[in-house]
Specification:
Layout: H1 3-7, H2 15-24, H3 29-43, E1 53-56, H4 60-72, E2 84-88, H5 115-122, E3 126-131, E4 143-144, E5 148-149, H6 165-172, E6 178-183, H7 189-194, E7 198-201, E8 221-226, H8 229-239, E9 273-277, H9 288-303, E10 307-311, H10 318-322, H11 327-341, H12 351-357, H13 365-373, H14 381-403, E11 408-412, H15 431-436, E12 440-447, E13 459-465, H16 471-485
Parallel strand pairs: 2-3, 2-6, 9-10, 9-11
Antiparallel strand pairs: 1-3, 4-5, 6-8, 7-8, 7-12, 11-13, 12-13
Organism: Neobacillus massiliamazoniensis
InterPro entries: Amidase_dom, AS_sf
Protein name: Amidase
Length: about 500
Amino acid sequence: MSTIQKTFKVLEKTIEELQEALTTGEITSVELVQIYLDRINAYDKSGANLNSIISINENGLTEAARLDKERIEGSLRGPLHGIPIILKDNFDTADMPTTGGATILKDFIPTKDAFVVNKLREAGAIIIAKSNLGELAMLPQNYSSLGGQTLNPYDLTRTPGSSSGGTGASIASNFAAAGMGTDGVNSIRSPGSANSLVGYRPTKGLLSREGIMPATITQETVGPITRTVQDATIMLDVLAGYNPNDSTTAWNVSHIPTTYTEFLKKDGLKGKRLGVLKTLFGSDSEHQEVNNIMENAIEDLKNNGAEIVYLDIPELDTNRVLEKDVTVYEFKTLFNSYLEGHGTNASIKSLKELIDSKTYDKRIETFLLDTQALENPLEETEYKERLLYGLELKNIIIKSMADNNLHAILYPHQKQLVAKVGEPQAGRNGIIGAISGFPAITVPAGFSSPTLSAPIGVPIGIEFLGRPWSEPILIEIAYSYEQGTHHRQPPVVTPEL
């Protein structure tokens, strides 16, 4: 380890701060990558044993050296030049396996990068590792047959949230500057809430899904998981854009500003009218810790200039909305098409071959058998009715916002603390954003009371939901709230080395 590596403090450094250190020569990309790799080595499979990483990029230091050389020559690729990033292991990477957490796919290397991975590399990012996930993005407890169980760094008895929890735990523990996840129900925002992070689910189609191991085409999107709103905004600038091979992205062409960073305003809450969706708050004893934090958050929003309106919309009860999830109808067709598209590279060619292999975690068996049993799933009457319900849900939300003259709706991402390992993830509210396709951002709102297993408490996140393409407004709201409260804290089990 070099002297610089020993003296440079990487903990909680933002992308902007890291870029400044690289520009001034305080550190090189090679040294930065090595610091993060040292942290992964110290805390992921030893120390706290978080088990958040599935694989390390063996070419990471070589890529860093090349980017250092380009920097010296004055050739910067973009805002992420030399910055280490972690991907959920369902993003196609041509230089690393893409497993979905499935043991049978442990050696599967795609022929090319996913569209957004290519954009990250074009901007100078270094993919240093790929994170564990709920197998095939189906297990909300963040367990996979290949990667095992990921633990929450704030409370090692708990999960790190939904299926992007490996990214959440790793970014919370400062294993990289920022990370990427996918979100078909809750899976970007749940790890955000559970790990004192920012989880951003953008408007459907703002970021292309080409090259993502699919779960649902109607509900799924990709997005950043970061330690700050500013970092998430920098990532959006890099990732947003039209992809001719992904028709959904065409809807967003005229809605992407020159830079989202212009909306990072400390006074961004002034004049904002926010609807508190009381429908999504719990009323039992297990909900009180979250409710207390949310009451404080609402006062903070008022103190920073927001006007608060209270809403009760029974149609938005997440227990009702969750019944309209379309994943079981779409998964087989999408998964088979994905495997067929990769030809001989994949060790299996269909969902049926995966089921026959019996290698998957048994907790997803019922789902796999149910989706396989649907002969023509996209022609099922119930599927079409659920799609129509999605259109109705959009109208309910947009009308409620119009009737109340709202800039955004807010609620706790999760009504109760994130689940203990082995227990179901109860009380999550992210399905509204997933089925509507509207943008939503989760920001740290505070912590529960400390316990022996959670020395600073368990993180709790507040979620803001906006109209389609209201990213600028959501960034103003989220950044102003973040800067007015500063609730983010790193976990104590992964200190500076």
